[in-house]
Design brief:
Length: 87
């Protein structure tokens, strides 16, 4: 089992990797490190997962997306697929 994300992943994908490993704090640090189109939806997802709906709403507005209504697992998969397609 890997202890670090694979080489070459952008910060948004690293955030999802850490989240999948159960390390919300490290995931959040990665998402917070880049205020860009890739990181903002991941940042929104992480705050939604945390249960901070106000903060999540702020990040959904920043990335011009409506708040997710799918399960957290489905949102994670959608984000990962979109980021991998851009890579």
């Amino acid at each position: 089992m890997r202890s670090d994300p694979p080489e070459g992943l952008g910060l948004a994908l690293q955030a999802l990797w850490w989240d999948a490993k159960g390390d919300w704090d490290r995931a959040h640090k990665c998402a917070q490190a880049r205020d860009d189109d890739a990181g903002m939806p991941v940042h929104a997802y992480l705050h939604r997962k945390e249960g901070d709906q106000d903060n999540a709403g702020y990040w959904y507005r920043r990335c011009r997306k409506p708040p997710a209504t799918v399960t957290l697992e489905e949102e994670w998969e959608e984000l990962a697929r979109a980021l991998l397609a851009q890579a």
